[in-house]
Structures are given as structure tokens and as C-alpha cells.
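Worked Example 4.2. Read the sequence first, then its C-alpha cells.
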Amino acid sequence: MKALHFGAGNIGRGFIGKLLADAGIAVTFADVNKTVISALQERQAYPVKVVGAQCVTEQVTNVNAIDSTSSELIDYIANADLITTAVGPTVLNIIAKSLAQGIEQRIQSGNTAAQNIIACENMVRGTTQLKAAVLSHLPEALHGDMEALIGFVDSAVDRIVPPAEAGETDPLAVTVETFSEWIVDQTQFKGDTPHIPGMECTDNLMAFVERKLFTLNTGHLITAYLGILAGHETIKDSIEDDNVREQVKAAMQESGEVLIRRYGFDRNAHAAYIEKILSRFANPYLRDEVDRVGRQPIRKLSPQDRLIKPLNGTFEYQIPNAHLIKGVAAAFLYQNEDDPQAVELQAMFAEKGLAVTLAHYSEVNVDSEVVKLVEQAYDALKK
């Protein structure tokens, strides 16, 4: 089997690309980073440091790379059995045009073998969004052929992959935590479902998408924002602050109650899952800076993301939500001159105030109870 993976960054190499290669699949990375692409082409292998209770360095082999601006990319798309991505929401829309061109070439060549595409992003049903973008670039006459032959498979992904370690000179070296979770919607595959150890199939993807979003992502972000307010630089330092840990755990329990009501998760099993996430935040081998985790607050305050979506669920089920409210309020205290979204959020906040700004980005009523509660929590945090 041949796989084309968009995104040769740390997540691409350390998570999805590694799982594919470990499964015996020939992986070609597509990226614009010429240093990384050249190194992959020359070495066709790279090291991954897997850290947990112990540190183990594993070699990933049988890999290659292509510049994603190359004219050859369309051939690679047309001939791949499996296409995966780890590029982020913005770039996902950019590669949609190339995917459409490759699919068009594949169909017109008479290739009737199934092909599957999986966007492995921190997005809710990111592959479905990618499919819509691809269709917008594909001639309408070929839409039926794409529906018949190309599977767009939604997924939920979870693995902490921090930036390169200080002093690291190898452009291909990457560090990842031991834990990883890649869950895919088995109902969306065309043809046979590939056997990839580490890829778990389900027919109820949204339960796992929201479990990860409401637990890992919600907890991670609130740890960052409360950690910044407490003067910490890393997620590890923040979660080892008893006060921060207590508040983060309480927020995860609030969002967890939404999951239990909505999907019927076992209460004891979910409590254990929360503890597992907290232990991952404290991994001594991962230096994950709070400023990195806190970035892009506008996206993270959107109605379908890690703060507002679980918070809305607490109102739906009439569940206590004081710690989730505090997490939202803390987002308005996040300042980072190197992050355009943080700058934009603070500019609107300064001009129009918290109520209007929150209502605008989170799509809530400016006179709603949630806005009043966040304002109160913000005032308390400021003091």
C-alpha cells in the first residue's frame, strides 16, 4: 500500500506518518519545508523519541518526501491508496485544489480502485469539511465518480507532540509521548478498511471526538491560561501547581458530565480517563510551553471548539459550570504579541468590552446568562 501524507512537521512525522510506516505502508510526505523534504529524500528514515515512564528512540523507515508545490504532486495524489493530513485547518483548504486535480486525474485514467482520505486534524469532522472544499474544485460531472470511489473518512486524533527540543540540530528528530489515539469513522471507508495498528475504528465517532475535545483539549487550554496567570512557563509546571490542577480537573469533570449524559460513557471509566490526561500533562520529558498551547484564542472561543461547546452542553443539561466559565474568562487575559489572534481579540476587547467580544466570537447572545457569568469570572480573575 502507498500512502501520501500532507504535513512533514512534528505531528506528521511523530504521529500519523510513524503509525503508517510502522504498519509497513510506504509513506511519502508532502510539505513546503525544503530542509525537511531534502533530509527525508536523502535519508528515507528519521528518529522518533517516545517518552513516558522511559525514553526510547525508534527509527521510522520506508519513507520519502515531495515538495507539495511540485508539479509531480498531482501524480502522487492520483496514485496513492491512502491520503492523510496533519497540516491545520487553514492549509487543509489550500491543499483541497491539489487533491481535486489528483482525483480528477485518477478518475480520468480509469482507475476504479478505492482511495481513502483522512484529515488528522484538531477539527470536528475535518475530513468532511475537506471533502466539501475538494468538491468545489472538482468538475461537477465527476462528483458522482468521486462519491463512488473516494472515501473521505473523519477521524479524532490525540497525541502530545511538543516543538523541537532546545539545541536539537537534526531537522527530522521529533519527540512524542507514549500515548496516542487515532479513531476513524469506519462507515466512511470505500473498499477494504486498511489494517493499521494504532488506528481504531468506530461507528460512533462523535462520541470520541467530543470526549477528546472536552477532556484533552479543554483541560490543556485551561491549564495553559491558568498557568500563565500563576506565572508558570510550561504545562508540566502548571499542572503540578495544586491550585491549577484542582481547577483544571474540576473543569474536566464539568465537561465530562456533559459527555456522560450525551453519550452514556461509564462514569468510572471517564474519571480514569481524566486522571490519565492529567498525568500526561505532567510528563517530565515533554516541555510544552503555555504560550504555545494558549495560541489562537479566537478559534478556541468559537462555538464548536474546546471552551464554548462543552460550556453550552452544561446549560443544555443544567450542569454546574463555574470552572469552565473561569476558563473562558481566562482566555481574555491571554496576551501574546506574536499571536495575531491574541492581538485581534485584545483589540476588540479594548474597544467594545468583554460582552460584545464574547458574543461576536462565541456566537452567544450578548444579554445571555453565560456572558454575565464570564464577566463576573473575569472581574474575579483580574482581582
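Now turn to a second chain, presented in exactly the same format:
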Amino acid sequence: MSNPPAEGAALHSLSPAVQDLTRLNTLGLVSRADAFVTLADPAQLPAVSRLARDGSSLLVLGGGSNLVLPERVAGLVARVAFKGVRLLEARPDAWLVEAAGGETWHGFVETCVGQGWDGLENLALIPGTVGAAPVQNIGAYGVELQERFHSLTAWDVREGRYVEMSAADCRFSYRDSVFKHGEPGRWIIVSVRFALPRPWRPVLGYPDLQRHARLAAGAPAARQVFDAVCEIRRAKLPDPAVTGNAGSFFKNPIVSADTRDALAGRFPGLVSYAQADGSCKLAAGWLIDQCGWKGRTLGAAGVHDRQALVLVNRGGAGAADIMALARAIQDAVFERYGVRLEPEPVVV
């Protein structure tokens, strides 16, 4: 997965074609690429660099779960479909596991739990691919990717070569990384390595997990945590295959403790979480719900009736519909709380 192209691999060519992207993004937004390729073999990567140097901008597409796509994407779209999962090393302190960038994230997590490589179970059922996961620094139910991340191999499209990147190189922060800034389309993530802790201990600090019947008896196995997370997510979040959505659309805003205290004085039910650095994370879903947006519709876009953080495609929505709704929500929250919500998805 992370080996350089074999001798003569530069001869692997790509023939971009027009492609309907409507079914390749989980929001189900009507979109079309003028030039689209699927990367099934790392040996095709030099050809991507040649195409990009021809003047095309590059959009790297994984599972399409964290994107707001326009009606037309004029540059080159490259969908990553590299496959493979392997155990690299069983160290005394960790399982070192590698997965190719095109593996589905949930499938990879399920494989790890099935093999006894525990530590990712709290991140079960998150849509998207392994290669896209570091871009967003995904997280859920008390665990963030950066806590399990070891390193990754990426193709530097501009330089036409492989690069190895550590956590420091990736510059992880809350739902953020170097891949979302500066030079979009420069890197194609080929494979990602994870250090999964030994001995394993369940992470059960999140309230939904503490209340779950599967976990109430104490000392659960990783499979029980995995199953509980899947049940919770299915109960709270719509299935993208049924209702177009990109998961949580807004980040939970981080504010100072003084700001949190001032808001709590005005709004006694304010939901917040203290952070290690002394700041506080506010629950964006609570803010949106309190502004009356849960279940509401604006044009072809709407807010999910069970989770105010999730914007949904009511049918035939485009990027303009989703972003108009997002701006209306941002304005309402800012007017009431003085806090500006930031979208999680990449808006192309």
C-alpha cells in the first residue's frame, strides 16, 4: 500500500471522463465533474501529477461524506479506491495497523475489532474512507483519530513523489488538519497507520455510552462498545443511503471559560464541555435547537428532526440550498448567543 510505483509504472495512464457525482456524495447534491478518474492502483499516481501539471485543479474524493459539491466541478476529480488492511507489527504497547486510503472507514473499524486490534470502536459507523479520516481528524464518543494515529503515506501531487507524514506533519486540531488548508488537492492519502493501544481500555466517558444498556454492567469488550456506538448512531442520525446528509454539519464552537460562564448565566440550560486547555466546547446542536431550527425546512434543504446538527437534502437540493440554510442557522445562533458556528464539511 505504501510502496512506490514499480519500474515502468509511469506508463500507467488515466483518461478523465465526465462523471455525474450526485451518487458519489452523501448529501446527494446534484453535481457533475468535467474530468473524473478512479485510482485503483498507486501506480496511477504519477499520471495524476502529470494531469494536474497540465493546469487542472484537483479535488480528491473519498466517500463523499464531508463535502458540499457545486453543480459543476470544472477541474480534475480523482476518487481514491486503493484497498487493503494489514497488521504491520504487534508491539508490547500497541498493534500497528495499516489501511489503504480507499477502504471504507466503518469496514476498517469492524475488521480491527474482529481481529482483536481494539481502540477504534468509538469511531464506528462514521461514513467515508480511511484516506479522508485524517483530513477531518474525525472523532466521536470521546475518541479522536489523532489519539490513535501513527503516520501516513501520501502522494505529493505537486512534487510527484511519496511523502511520509507524522502527526506533527498533519497538524491535527479539532476537526482539522493541514490537508484542509493552504494547498487543497496537493496530497492524495495512499495509506494510514494506526497505533492501537495494548492493553486496551474502553473509553466510556461520553454520556450516551454511560447510559447504554449494553455497557451498564461494566468491563465491556470492544465488540460491545462497537455495537453500542452503532445502535446510538443509527437511532440519532439519518442513513445517507436513505436521506442525503453529511453527518454533523457544524463544529462545536470552542470559547473561553469566561464566555461560557457569561452565556450560562443568561441561558441556564447551556450544554458545554470543559477542555484540557481551560477552554470550553459548546454543544452546537443545542444552540441550533434552542433557536428553533430542528426539523425545519428551507427550500430543498432541511434540519434533521432528531439531530439539529445534521442538515439534510429533502430532494433535489444543490449546494446553494444547503449553504443558504447553513447561513440562516449561523445568523440565528450568532444573533442569540454571539457565537459563530463553523461548518465541518469542505465546501468546494
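Notes for the reader: The longest strand covers residues 187-197. Residues 319-337 form the longest helix (19 residues).
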